[in-house]
Amino acid sequence: MLLRCRIPLAHFDLDVDVAFDARVASIFGPSGSGKTTLLDAIAGLRDITAGEIEIDGSTLFSSARGIDRPPRERGIGYVPQEGALFPHLSVRKNILFGAGRSADISRLKGISVEHVLSVLEIGSLLDRAVKKLSGGEVQRVALARAILSQPRLLLLDEPLASLDIGLKEKILPYLARVRDEFRIPMIYVTHNLTEVLTLADWVLMIRQGRLVTQGVPKEALRSMHAIMQLPEDQFENVFAVTFVESDPEAGRTKVRLQAGQELFIPYLPRPGSDTIQIRISADDILVAIKRPEGISAGNVLPGTVRRIDAIDGQAIVTVAAGDEFYARLTASAVKRLGLVEKAPVFLIMKTRSFRSL
Amino acid sequence: MIFSLETWHITLFSLAVGLTSTLVILPFGIALAWIFARKEWPFKSVIETLVLLPLVMPPVSTGLILLKIFGRRNPVGQWLYERGVEIVFNWKGVLMAMAVMSFPLLVRSVRTSFTEVNPRFEQIAATLGASPLRIFFVITIPLAYKGIIAGALLAFSRALGEFGATILLAGNIPGKTQTLSLAIYSFVQLGKDSDAYTLLGITVALAFLFVWCSEWLLRSAKKA
Prior knowledge:
By secondary structure, chain A is α+β, with helices and mostly antiparallel strands. Chain A is built from eleven helices and 21 strands. Chain A starts with a strand and ends with a strand.
């Protein structure tokens, strides 16, 4: 996908010129960095004085060539932060509002109403009034409405931002299912790293309207630029793992990393699909230079320090232990342990520090 | 209090012309209110002020302007007369006076109700492929309908109370152009006090009903 635009804003110019090939590209950055503006511009909802917006070679806007296709001809599905369901229409009418539009059928065949309803599990809500929906239901209905308009691109503007943490964890898997079930490229705006790592296969970081860095999430986010923008609680490791076995008595489930290492996570019943995503905060990983004994933590993985990024008294230690793990330590801990690149270490992770999606 | 045939006639005539006037101005009022609420252009406030002018101008002045426009000796009036349409001194004059005087009130309250519709809904409807016409009728109007009805009720009440412009344009001809307001004036002049009080009662009751309904609608629209 080719996305190129220049949009003059009040305090800075939004200037993005990128090419990427991704199912889900995440736009990641702090609030006020121009993320929503960018989505509005792509969808054609904001007047732009100069610039160009091009997606997959088709020009949506060009001040130089005098092109400005109206929103309804752009074929772009938009799920705004608040959902923006039409309050006077039923859930059914909301969902079917854009379903009549002719679209690029070759690429989208196979999207049926039933399929969307079952993927998002909203079949039972159809006759409900919009005002009677919960926050999570609103987001799923808004998503269904956008998908059924058969867009060539789906824009999601912080769809989870207004939900509380418990609900976020419930909705995130739905987004992953939408990504896997329907072949619609998505641009996903967020300032939450977990969402980026869980959903996106490409990330664009913007700050003050400018592209700071882009790439595969794990690699792009390793840069200090990225890390220093993160709120304290948001630096997380996310892994796709294979389910091995569950033991309710022991209260734990065994999973396997792609590289073969096995980990224990809190008990969960056998999931529908063998591949699940787990995560652990970078602050919940302990680093030891000798194999510890007599501790309660269920996971001790040997590994090698790959790199250490230190800034402002903090250090992100990247450890290769099959997969790559990030541990956030104080500068003093790094010094005490004498950690350097290529040093052999052990990662200690409590079973209960892992969370699954 | 006795409802004579005359009072019945006057009341029904006023209601009928008032209702027609409201129905005639409704589509234009809605269209103009939408343009005022959603579009921007240079000197927009000048146009808005012109439209609102009859709201504050002495109704007699407005009536005089209308008389100058539609009188048979003036180009517009003459042109209409040659085509068999005469506005002055008949029920069409009453209709015209009511329409012109109540139009600004309608535009103003409908504009407010359009402004209160979140444009985000219209924008999202556009991304879903809806045409501007479909957005207007399926999203904007249904979300603003309470304010529109309230505005229409206000315009209707204003039409019924119209006096100054009507008397200049249509005269005060019993059985032909005499409305509730004009009749009250005549009855008081002629000393027919009891008839005047009957009509007074009717106007108070109608005005109360309309304002109450319109306020209730506006309040429930705010709550929604």
